[in-house]
Amino acid sequence: MLPPVANRFVAGETAAEAIDHARRQAKLGIDPMVNLLGSHHADRPAAEADAAEYRLLVEDLAEADLEGEPAISVKPTQIGLDCGETVFRDLLGGVLEAAVTHDVFVWLDMEEHTTVDATLAAYERFARLSDGRVGVCLQADLERTLDDLERLADVPGKLRLVKGGAYDRPSEIAYTTDTRIDQAYRRLLDRAFETVEGPVVVATHDPEMIEYATDRADGTDLEFQFLMGVRPRAQRTLATEYDVCQFVPYGTRWKRWAINRAKRNVGFTARAVAETLVPLGNGETFEEEVGVSVPVHESPATSGLESTGE
């Protein structure tokens, strides 16, 4: 069992716990995007082990018969990219084959800027081979991303649009101030509405950016993505009108992830601690009991479904 606070942001240490959480969210109209925590495996056996667990996970998700569309989210360095592109593609191909068989969508996370080319190349290849059963993350803070969007707009998959990632970016290739990153994200959304076929996937917790997307969509289908434990009321509210997907992490490597989430979401963390110390006793969360929207304190550069290098 995870300690208090951590269990707000992590579903548990096992796939069964993640699927139990996913089942509860599905009843609220929120689709799960399940992730086995871990990254940067430098040896092939470790990467193969996580790839094997993902293959089992998609079987379990299919057997759970969840409402909506279940998905998994995979970090390229978790399944072999640090061992070379050939290893990465071999292992990703196996995961994707299982996912297609069991009708589970596969998302590729984006990590350091040095992994972008290999990740996008794999996405483009496998999205075409799987008839669009793959999605990939595009980070607005990288100056190259508008060009990447143009190149990938007609690929039969999905593009997850985030503000940025958790890794440091050289100023020569990235926007590094909050204002410029916000501007870049708005430009990315605008261009996506003009060029992307299918839904535009908006992955941010920033209320201003969510409002911007809903105002500018002009008939384009929208999907919103959130992290588990962050703005749960907003997730439920949006799910009454739009497709909403929640990133559901699990695994034994949860400590760094939970610490990072707690640091970036001070309001939720304080309330989780308060609820632990003074239980409400009626099954309600502190947020629901007091009837207020809890502010989320997060860095604009990392307010999407970014990799955190756990």
From TrEMBL:
Q: Keywords, A to Z?
A: Oxidoreductase
Bias category Polar residues: which stretches? 300-310
Q: Which SUPFAM superfamilies match?
A: FAD-linked oxidoreductase
The GO terms describing molecular function are:
proline dehydrogenase activity
The keyword Oxidoreductase belongs to this UniProt entry's keyword annotation: yes
The record's section on Gene3D superfamilies has:
3.20.20.220
**Domain Proline dehydrogenase residues, every copy:** 19-252
BP GO annotations: L-proline catabolic process
Matching InterPro entries: FAD-linked_oxidoreductase-like (IPR029041), Proline_DH_dom (IPR002872), Proline_oxidase (IPR015659)
Q: Where is this region: Disordered?
A: 289-310
Q: Matching PANTHER family, A to Z?
A: PROLINE DEHYDROGENASE 1, MITOCHONDRIAL, PROLINE OXIDASE
Protein name stated in the entry: L-proline dehydrogenase
**Organism classification:** Archaea, Methanobacteriati, Methanobacteriota, Stenosarchaea group, Halobacteria
